[in-house]
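Before relying on records like the one below, remember that each one covers exactly one chain. Contacts with other chains, cofactors or solvent are not represented anywhere in the record.
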Amino acid sequence: MCLLVPNPMTFLVQKLLIHSDRPPDKKAQDVLYIHDTLELFGASLDEIQRLWIDAVRPAMPTKTAGRVEVIARDLFAQVTDTIRQAARIPQDRRLAPENVQRACEYGLGEVLANEPTS
């Protein structure tokens, strides 16, 4: 049996690209997934960025890759109701919406950079 698991970069890209098509409760859930993925793999942001630069971005049409970057920038430019709702989802931890927004803005800014940051 073979189980295909997406790498963290393709998972993030997929969540960003489908964001506008999702119902509001799923948008918040996806924001939390983006946050948690970045938090989980935070120590290896440079490796995730390498995936973006070397594998994921080159495999996408230029326009689609540009959309990913714009969506990431716009989605986390400020604290929104969606981010507030995402911060309320976890029952086992307390997340401040501002921290979710800042972590996602920073993490996506790092991994979607066109040049390696390290």
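The chain has a mean pLDDT of 91.
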